[in-house]
Structures are given as C-alpha cells and as structure tokens.
Amino acid sequence: MSVNHRLHPFNLSKYSKSNALLAGLLITLISFAILSIGIGAVSVEPSVVLKIFANKLGFLDFAEDELVQSSAIIYSIRLPRVILAILVGSTLAISGAALQGLFRNPLADPTLIGVSSGSALAAAFVIILGAQLFSFLPEYLYSALLPISAFVGGLIATLLVYTISTSAGKTNIATMLLAGIAVNAVAAAGIGFLVFSADDIQIRDLTFWTLGSLGGSVWNNVAKSAPFLLITIIGLPFFSKQMNVMLLGEHEARYLGVNTQFVKKAIILLSTLGIGASVAVSGIIGFVGLVVPHLLRLIIGPDHRFLMPGSILLGALLLLASDLFARMVVIPAELPIGIVTSAIGAPFFLWLLIRNRSISAQI
Known about the structure:
Blueprint lengths: L1 H37 L7 H11 L11 H36 L11 H19 L5 H5 L1 H21 E2 L2 E2 L1 H25 L2 H11 L8 H17 L4 H7 L3 H6 L4 H23 L5 H13 L3 H25 L8 H19 L1 H6 L1
C-alpha cells in the first residue's frame, strides 16, 4: 500500500506534465496559425481573421463587401499555405519520431538516412521526364504520379539503409549514417544528371523545389497531398505502445507478444508514404524530423504515447514558424524554407554528435 502511495504522485506528475505540454503546444499552434494567416504583404489583424472565420461558420453575420479583400487573401492564399505547413510539419516530425523509435537511436532523421533524397530523386525524375515518358496516362493518373513516385523512391531508400545497417536484429548507428550518406550522394548525382538534361524553366523550378518551399500552396495541392499526409499522421500513433515495448529490444518485444515484423513494416510504409507526399508537395525540408522528437524526449521522456502527438504539434509549429520567417525576411522575395530548417537543424545535429561523443567516435 505504501509503495503504491509513493508511486502514484510520481505517475500523476509525469502524466500531468506531458498533458500540460500537449495542451500548451495545441494552444500555441492555433494562436500562431491565426497570426500567420494575418501576416504578409497585406496585413490582416487577428481579430479580423477570427471575424471572417466566424462569419464563414455562421456564428457571425456582416456584409460580405466589408472585408471582401481580406477574405479573398485569407481563403485563396494564406489558409491553404498554413494548412499545408501544418500537415507537412506534422508528418515530417512524427515520421522522424517513428524512425528514431524503430532504429532505437536519436539520429534517424528522414533527411540524414536518405529517405527524403530517395523521394526527391524519384519526384525530380517525374518533374523533368514525366511529360515525355508518361504522356499516355490519363490526367487523373498523371496527376497522382508525382506523390506515388516520391513514395516509391523514399521506400526503396529506407529499405536499402535498413537492410545495410541491421544485422541480427540490431541496427548499427554508424553504418546507418554512412549508408544514408551514400544514398544521399547517389540521389544528388541522379538529380544533378536530371538538372543537366532539363531546360531553363525546369532547372529554375527544380532548384527552388529541392531547397524546399511552400510557395505553390494552393487548394489543389492541399487536396492531392492531404490524404497521404493524414494517413501517416493518424496511423503512426496507433503503434505507440508497441514502440515503447520495442525500445527494450526486438527479442524482448517478441517475448512480450509484439509482432515486431508487422510493426516495423507498418512504420516504414507509413513514414515513407508521408515523407514521399511531403517531398512531392513541398520539396526537401530537412531536420524537422530530427530536431522535434529529440527536443520532446529531453522534456517529457521517450514514452511514445506522448512523444507521437507532441511531435505532430511541435512539428507543425516549427514549420509554420519557419515558413513565416521565410516569407518575411527577404520581402518581396521568398527564402526557401529548407534553408531555414537546415540553419536550425544543422547546429542541433552537431550538438547531438558532441553530446553523444561515443557515437561520433564510432564513426
């Protein structure tokens, strides 16, 4: 009885801290989304943004011509961009958390281990050569070719890295990072060859796309990518308990009744599906999947029941803030968002390597 009495306050404090953090992230994300919708070349006050949304939902009536310009800006330009930033940021962060849990190390970022590069190579192939090679496809199939190819490219890269770095059920982090470097190099060479084969317009579009951008955020792109992104965002948290058990090791997890092979395949498929869709719609945006899960582990620990939803919220918030900075820092031009996230993530990665000197020494 006394043991339970001693443990109960600890557990309550732990869960309260985690739930409070999730609630705080949700409130911050909603507030920042409203601010981001209003900030731009034409500013819209947060109160006006809320007024327009309230009118759209039927809670408030006002003459449409009062705010017709602000409504057009919000619904045609700002809102699809904010929604896409939230979906892509959430997908990258939760995919990073899932891959780190699967590999059981904090450095398994989709960019570092080659997943994003594999997706980018396949997507670049479709962008530059798709019109020549797949012109026979009907329009509805051709429009889906880019996200499908990005998914397949990311899946091949993930399986390649996982196969090379895993032996006897254990993943060697040094081998994994080196395999990721090799995959990134091969993908970069392939993209370079495609750039060499492209015309001026394709080169300009591809260069900006490979640096990451949400500049093409229109409702059509949101509609095409949202189903794939939402499958990843909704699907991965269902494996939180199994991933907690697998932190003990695959053999131990099997003894405790976890179907480890199914869980690994599901995590890889869901992660690469989301990453592929993200790359297809926004290009390569690095380090979100590395920074977000690790920060949350430092705050709330490795419990995936809180880590996964926390990654969704913090990933969305980080990419939303990065996109806002990219839009505002060089007005009227726009800085590629991949540059912003890399500027944040690269020093963080170096700090991780310094903090884990035993890992860097093996490499």
